[in-house]
Amino acid sequence: MTGTWSVDRAARLHTPAVTGFPVAERDSAEGSCVYVADELIATVDAVSCLPGLVSPDFLDITPTDAWASGLRLRVFRYSGSEPLLDLIDSLRDQARANAPGLGINPSACDVAPNHVFSGEIYIYHGGPAGPPQPPAAPWDPSTSPSSWGSGAPFVVVLDTGLVTETPLGLAAKVQHAPTDEDVQHMPGTQAAELAAEAGHGTFIAAVIERMAHGGVSQSSVKVLNPDGFGKETTIVDALIQVQEHPAGVGVVNMSLGAYSHCDRPPLAMWKAIAALPPGIVVVAAAGNNGLAHRPYWPAALKRVVAVASVRDGQFGIEASDFSNSGAWVDVCTQGEDILGVYGYGTFPDPTTPTPFEGWARWSGTSFAAPLVTAEIARRALAAAPMPAAEVWRRWKEHLTAASDENPDLEMFGLHWDARASGIDPTQP
Fold it and tell me: pTM value?
């Protein structure tokens, strides 16, 4: 199933009717990246140094005043003929060359693509290491927490939204906009056929609720479509809302990611995460390409807790074959065969379509990340009013390096066994 799923999704990636925007990708010396084919992001200082942006080829589509006044960024749509990434590089060089004469610091001048982020498999993914699998049995609802969180969200999940109908009434108890419900199906598919990343956000919200032992209030914000794609600007809009209306938010879970042009931190996402209140913790998936040499964003940002995946081996913990790693990884935990709430429908496969009845097992760093999110939330709520960032700082002081248990895990950061929370995320 995995091969078919990847091929089908690769075709959908370049279909604007599916992604909702034109997508491009380029291979380079550092690897490939995916970006919106006709949009670029520039700092306001770069714009001041680039008179050429005032031309018919560029249309200012900056989403809100918060972009210009807070993040000091502007977004443009480009209709010219020059390849976008070449144009971006030349605009950055031109802005920095013009900056001194205008009394502007050249380092404040930057121009970047509007990267495409994903939470799913294929080449650019931060989440699943393969399609979901039906579990032999779900967890017993009678053992699930009876008191769900209410009030202002403490955890915000930026993902695919929520499936409307779920076991345990999850969708009714996690805050979300009605328009953010994950419809599960892609345009043109049969009503029962699930999209490639249908239920991804639902699965993560359920894992957080279960592993936090109940009582944690959550908000689910849809920033990826059911196939798992979303613009950097869309995700940043959600981060700006967290920044402007934190209302007690402690943790933001981002089981999504992207590689970037020239391996630079994605400009808008970097600025938006840096602007969050200091007490908030951002947790992100490390990605599933099995790479140890390339930064994966937003996980590789210093402000972010990057989570890799490990499993039990014959002689102790060992790396999940799919998990990215690197000096930027902060912590690793279980990421294989995690049990969670899913949707209802059939996962497409030409030979053996797979039916789902509201539950699934899924593997990937997407599902290691919410285990860490849940534990930070659980500890922070117990230690209130201590900020979540301080809770994370104190907790990690008691964790040991993964390489102390297995020398091959030098690039996997600290190790935390999620079963130490009292619940095994792989078992009913």
Answer: 0.93
